[in-house]
Amino acid sequence: MKKPIIEVKNYSFAYENTDKKVLDSVSFTINEGDFVGIIGRNKAGKSTLCESLVGLLPFTMGGSWDGEIVIDGKSLNETKGAGVTDIIGIVFQDAESQFTQETVEDEIAFAMCNFGYSRELMRERILYASEACGLRNMLDRSPFKLSGGQQQRLAIACILALQPKVIILDESTSQLDPIGRDEVFGLITKLHAAGSTVIMVDHNIEKIAEYVNKVLVLHDGKVIEFDDAGKVFQKKDKLNAHDVRVPQVTDAALQLKDKLGFKEAPITLEQAKSVFAGYKKEGK
Ligand SMILES: Nc1ncnc2c1ncn2[C@@H]1O[C@H](COP(=O)(O)OP(=O)(O)OP(=O)(O)O)[C@@H](O)[C@H]1O
């Protein structure tokens, strides 16, 4: 049986000086090895949820909360948000603004220095993270002179050097061109295949449908759906009512569902190709 790595139990959160619950009685469990996409309209609370999962909210940045978040068996309420950097790490949208060092190598080393890693361990992890993220031949380059996709891969390498079990990407592909976006999705797919648990916030529904296995839909701070991606995207009417669209291929297939009689609409082009190829062969 899969082991729970993130347990969110009836968690509510309000920013300082407000009593509006930006997250309202949120409960869900993510297991080791899951690849979860978090979707929802603007201001649904997605970033607030991600920052809560790493303990930044409320413990570093303030705010009031209720309920509990447990990361790999550690309650953030008990650790006051600390002690989970080797379990869970977050990559934000604007990688460049977080860089402070003159070279890629120093940037990857930076967090490890702060955590007091030995020189040998740092060297080992720099090689591991730069290799995994395709930056091994760029260690002496300036982080500020990399392309958008390379900068996001560097931001991921900085997190990866700490070898967390869970990586969260909060809209980290939204400012990238299609090539940069594919670079990041390609890297994340590799990390997931190697055993990492991945949580990804992204407005690109097609990419989410293509890559993740579970989808969590947030709306006004509440979890509307949390299930296998294939199941969630069948619920077009419910998602549309919460300002979330389904993949275009699913939308089109749902319109043909009754006529063609398939049980579940495909959510990716690849799936659609095999569903519709079957119909062609059978001459239906
Ligand atoms: N530092 C803050 N102080 C007060 N309110 C905040 C703060 N940050 C976010 N909010 C509010 O919390 C709500 C949820 O914001 P959040 O950024 O978590 O949503 P989101 O789903 O990530 O949105 P988007 O898709 O637009 O990035 C919004 O109403 C936002 O205005």
UniProtKB/TrEMBL annotation:
Signal peptide residue numbers: none
Residues in coiled coil: none
Alphabetized PANTHER family for the sequence: ENERGY-COUPLING FACTOR TRANSPORTER ATP-BINDING PROTEIN ECFA2 (PTHR43553:SF27), HEAVY METAL TRANSPORTER (PTHR43553)
A Pfam family of this chain: ABC_tran
GO cellular component, one term: ATP-binding cassette (ABC) transporter complex
GO MF term set: ATP binding; ATP hydrolysis activity; ATPase-coupled transmembrane transporter activity
Protein family per UniProt: Belongs to the ABC transporter superfamily.
Gene3D superfamilies on file: P-loop containing nucleotide triphosphate hydrolases
Residue ranges occupied by any ABC transporter domain in the UniProt entry: 6-245
Cell location: Cell membrane
Topological type in the membrane: Peripheral membrane protein
Protein name (Swiss-Prot/TrEMBL): ABC transporter domain-containing protein
Species of provenance: Herbinix hemicellulosilytica
SUPFAM superfamilies: P-loop containing nucleoside triphosphate hydrolases
Keywords: ATP-binding, Cell membrane, Membrane, Nucleotide-binding, Translocase, Transport
Entries under InterPro entries matching the protein: AAA+_ATPase, ABC_transporter-like_ATP-bd, ABC_transporter-like_CS, ABC_transpr_CbiO/EcfA_su, ECF_ABC_transporter_ATP-bd, P-loop_NTPase
